[in-house]
Amino acid sequence: MVLEYDIPKFVSWIGPAIVWYLAMAGVAAVAAALLTWFAQAVASGPLTGGDRVYRGVLAGLGDILATSPRRVWAMARLAIQESLRRNVLVVLGIFALILLFAGWFLDPASVNPARLYIGFILGATNLLVCLVTLVLAVFSLPADIKSKAIQTVTTKPVRTSEIVLGRIVGFAAVGTCLLALMAVAGWAFVVRSVSHSHTLEQADVFAEVGGEGEASGFEGHTSYDRGHRHRVPLDGDGNGQTDTTHGHRHRVVVTGTTASGERTYRVDEPIGMLEARRPLRGSLRFLDREGRPSAKGISVGAEWSYRQFIEGGTAAAAIWTFEGVTPDEFAQGLPLEMTVRVFRTHKGQIEEGIHGTIQLQNPATKVRSEPLPIVAKEFTIESLLIPRKIGTVMSDGTLQEVDLFNDLVSDGRVEVWLQCLEPAQYYGVAQADFFLRAGEGSFVLNYVKSCLGIWFSMLICTALGVMFSTFLSGPVALIGTLSTLIVGQFREFIGRLFTSQVSGDATLMPGGGPIESLYRIVTQTSITLELDPTPAVQAMKVIDTILLAPVQLAAVVFPSLSSLGTSDFVAGGFDIPGDLLAAHAAETFGYVLAFFVAGVFCLKAREVAS
Questions:
Q1: Where are the strands (E) in 210-259, listed by range?
Q2: Which of 76, 276, 305, 595 could form a disulfide with 463 if both were Cys (CB 3.0 to 4.6 A apart)?
């Protein structure tokens, strides 16, 4: 899971967020008032236009402040009834069909089936719920205005604010019910899809003979199911745990002995598929092949690669520095979990992983532990429990056992070194790939948290659709809503692109703006090549910056549904932090409030009562 930044505490985030929100709301309100005054001034003169804007603002604020919850709920009931008349429950049948036929297209033998199934279910649920509520929101009010049915409502003692808020609440209630039913069905589908077991026969178990000719343990392999099998190291009693394959492992226990003296084994349900880890992450730095500090690792030629690589068989290393490591938090040792990618310059033993080592170092005294061997496997999270007592190589070359927290941890800080042993092979890592498992949350609760993120997206879609429907026809409102959401989806990309244009740092976003990108396409110029600073190129860059400025402003203001999504946390097996969920809730409330107020003033301007 890509997470290269620390999630701030909600109490420290909310203050600056409120200031930014009020500033943007003030700018938007002043801009809207000026545009409205300009339109009225052209039609009726400056003074009359100003008077109309002033009276309209007072009337709109009066409507909002006098909103009645009873009348809002009455309007919401009408919206719910309208949704049922439009056969909105058909979407549940569509979702059921998706679940029925998903097994044809989802491969249970994939390298991480839990991620595949969870990502698919949450993605399908998000798409259907948001799409249904969006269509209801953008077509409902324009249809009532066109058929003049809205006049039946406005002749009653119902305010404009109650019409808008009632629509939002009603359609949101429909979306909430749909989301709850889909979430329960999706949960059952995921649990049933990833649940499986293997068998272990005595014929597949072999004794491991020690130096004295006695069996020190046993090793075997399970049956081949769901496209994989597991290697099983067993103790002298025949119990043990399989290795981690396809993102999970199994516990193996002896259940008895047959009449012929053969043991019978039971392989339990998978462990590690449906988890909610609470990670303690560190900061990453690199050493080059000579052992010197480096700003980044080696590029293996993938231009958009997320991970940096270190060369095997050299002094190159990736070093994570963890803070807050205490004996109270990690009484049994350090549960290190890691994801390591491999880039091969030759096949080698393709069925085996690439060998490397993990070492711990005290950041103050530079005392380093003995190397702990690892074997990197693609697309899986490997676990390594570093014990409290660990060997350390002394200055004279001898090996001495030391205490983890007394000798390798300094003021709660410890360094973890990763090195690749095999020459001409490479390890690829990113900052989020190594973490200490600081706790375990409930997967069910984590799944509910992710569904809450879908609910936030649905609320924004509903409020945005209702707002556009107050002054646009249904199809145009749908296009406007989708355009707003699409621009918001690329908020981070547009921000990096605009920063790259202003600062001139092409490494932030290679390729330049729209004009420069078109030029590179026509001339077949690679995005990695710097263009000659000719007057034409400079003019092209200036035009790109001017074109990107309003897009950047819109991207900052428009909502980003992708930033509200937390399905990556659940699919990756990580607990969704409460601070992140609280920030998403506050952001959603801010957008819904802004769209509600804008919708009230837009509907008020249409003077539907007349």
A1: 215-221, 231-234, 240-241, 251-257
A2: 595
What CATH number does the domain containing 320 carry? 2.60.120
Give the residue from 440, 475, 506 where a domain finishes: 440
Compute the radius of gyration of the chain from its Cα atoms. 30
The residue type at 249: R
pLDDT in tens, 462-507: 999 999 999 888 899 999 999 999 888 888 888 888 888 888 777 7
Distance CA 286, CA 347 (A): 26
What residues contact residue 40 under an 8 Å CB cut-off, 6+ apart? 48, 49, 50, 52, 53
| CA 231 – CA 369 distance, rounded (Å) | 29
Q: Of the segments 38-52, 74-88, 293-307, which one has the largest average pLDDT value? A: 74-88
Q: Are residues 430 and 516 in the same domain?
A: no
**DSSP string across 99-132:** HHHHHHHS-TTSS-HHHHHHHHHHHHHHHHHHHH
What is the C-alpha separation between 80 and 271, in angstroms, rounded? 43
Give one DSSP letter per residue of 135-202, joined into a string. HHHHHHHHHHHHTTTHHHHHTSS--HHHHHHHHHHHHHHHHHHHHHHHHHHHHHHHHHHH-------G
What residue type is assigned to position 358 of the chain?
I
Q: Which two tokens stand for residue 127?
A: 């798409």
- 416 near 435, Cβ under 8 Å? no
CA angle 500, 503, 508 (to 5 degrees): 30
**Which residues, 6 or more positions from 468, have their beta carbon under 8 angstroms from its beta carbon?**
138, 476, 477, 478, 480, 481
pTM of the predicted protein model: 0.86
User: Which residue do the tokens 């428009």 mark?
Assistant: 558
Q: Which domain holds residue 63?
A: 10-194+441-606
Taking the C-alpha atoms of residue 590 and residue 22, their distance in angstroms, rounded to an integer, is 10
* CA 43 to each of CA 33, 35, 39, 447: distance values in angstroms, whole numbers, following the listed order: 15, 13, 6, 55
Taking the CA of residue 545 as centre, how many other CA atoms within 13 Å lie in the half-sphere pointing to its CB?
Answer: 12
- d(Cα 421, Cα 424) in Å, to the nearest integer? 9
Mark whether 477 and 407 lie in a shared domain.
Answer: no
Residues 342 and 366 in one domain: yes
Q: What is the pLDDT of residue 609?
A: 39
Q: For residue range 64-90, what is the model confidence (pLDDT) as tens digits?
A: 888 889 999 989 999 999 899 888 889
Residue 337: which of 247, 405, 423, 424 has the closest Cα?
247
